[in-house]
Amino acid sequence: MLLKNSNYLTQIKKKINDIITELNATTLCFTGHRSQKLPWGFNEKDKRCLKMKKVLYLEIEKSILQGYKTFLCGMALGFDMICAEIVLKFKKKYKDIKLIGVIPCKNQDCKWNIRQKKRYRKILKQLDAIRCIYKEYNGYECMIERNNYMVNNSSKMIALFNGIAGGTKKTIDYAKKQGLKIVIIQP
């Protein structure tokens, strides 16, 4: 009897792993610089930002047409929020896609200005789900764990990367080690 139960548990674990693998195969995550590190800063009307948004828009739609249905976004200032807003626009056209916010901690926005908080909270209300890594900020480690969670649960990444060392580079390097398809957009 124990052998049968062991075999049954093995079959269940395999089935769960198969489901996770299938979900990851249609999941894409984003990584990129915060506004402070971008050449246009917080000015999203800058022609360089507008050009980047067009490229990003095309890459997201191309991914949807390739079968990507779930999008994981870290919800940080800058590239993350831009990605979230574009995916939300696509949700009107492609009803079966999902946007999941993967936030490092519940109080991620505590040091942001009122305008930034308003934008963030507006996006949060439209998400299909939120995955919160930590209850409160506990240092840079929660950002790394947020990024790793997104990579570990995806098969593709779209990144905004200027080539400079930092959190975005570390996330891209980790994604490469995990075998993700990576699209890099230069700011």
Give a nutshell description of this structure.
By secondary structure, the protein is an alpha/beta fold. The chain contains six helices and six strands, in the order αβαβαβαβαβαβ.
What's the arrangement of secondary structure elements?
Elements: H1 2-25, E1 27-32, H2 47-65, E2 70-73, H3 79-93, E3 98-105, H4 114-126, E4 129-134, H5 140-152, E5 156-160, H6 167-177, E6 181-185
Parallel strand pairs: 1-2, 1-5, 2-3, 3-4, 5-6
Helix pairs in contact: 2-3, 3-4, 5-6
Number of helices: 6
Spatial strand order of the main sheet? 4-3-2-1-5-6
- Unreliable runs, pLDDT <50, ≥5 residues? none
The helix/strand order is HEHEHEHEHEHE
The major pleated sheet works out as: 6 strands, parallel
Mean pLDDT: 91
- What general form does the structure show? globular
What gyration radius follows from the Cα positions, in whole Å? 18 Å
Share of β-strand residues: 15-25%
Report on the architecture of this protein.
With 187 residues, this protein is α/β, with parallel strands linked by helices. 51% of the residues lie in helices and 18% in strands. It has helices at 2-25, 47-65, 79-93, 114-126, 140-152, 167-177, and strands at residues 27-32, 70-73, 98-105, 129-134, 156-160, 181-185. The radius of gyration is 18 Å and the shape is globular.
Keywords:
18% strand, 187 residues, alpha/beta, six-stranded parallel sheet, single chain, 51% helix
